[in-house]
Amino acid sequence: MKNRQSGFTLIELLIVVAIIGIIAAIAIPNLLNAIDRGKQKRTMADMRSVGTACEEYSIDNNFYPVQTTQAAVTGAVSGVLEPTYIKVTPANDGWNRAIRYGSAAGGTGYTIRSYGKNGTADASFGQTTAFNCDIVFQDGQFTAWPSGVQT
């Protein structure tokens, strides 16, 4: 009687490992892109919420919250918005950096800005195509926003 052992050969195991590697090489970049898209969308929703609160504030006071330099939305701005116009002012964007707010000296206009994934300011306006581009919300509308495939 022959004693026959069962199991996988080395070549079969190598083929399975290669297939798993190919699937991972395809899936991981898509996953990272989806995570960044989610952070971008969350940032836009938070900025829109702060903008809506500023608009409501201006209805009652005839001017927007005043902060003449672009700085974090926390402090003076969140102090006048909370809890009447927004329960909790979002302080950070999706990449955990400060959402910035600035207004004209008389409160005639405002700008809410996220520096994007890289955390540095750029001068992009209109539709953007990179996660590093700023997202800008001015006077009730986005003036720099993500559109299409982001890189």
Describe the SSE topology.
Elements lengths: L9 H52 L9 E2 L3 H6 L18 E4 L6 E5 L11 E3 L6 E4 L2 E6 L5
Parallel strand pairs: 4-6
Antiparallel strand pairs: 1-2, 2-3, 3-5, 5-6
Report on this model:
The protein is an alpha+beta fold. The chain has a single domain (10-146), classed as Glycoprotein, Type 4 Pilin (2-Layer Sandwich). Helices cover 38% and strands 16% of the residues. It has two helices and six strands; from the N terminus they run H-E-H-E-E-E-E-E. The protein has helices at 10-61, 76-81; strands spanning 71-72, 100-103, 110-114, 126-128, 135-138, 141-146. A six-stranded mixed beta sheet has the order 1-2-3-5-6-4, with helices on one face. A hairpin with a 6-residue loop joins strand 2 and strand 3 (110-114). The mean pLDDT is 89.
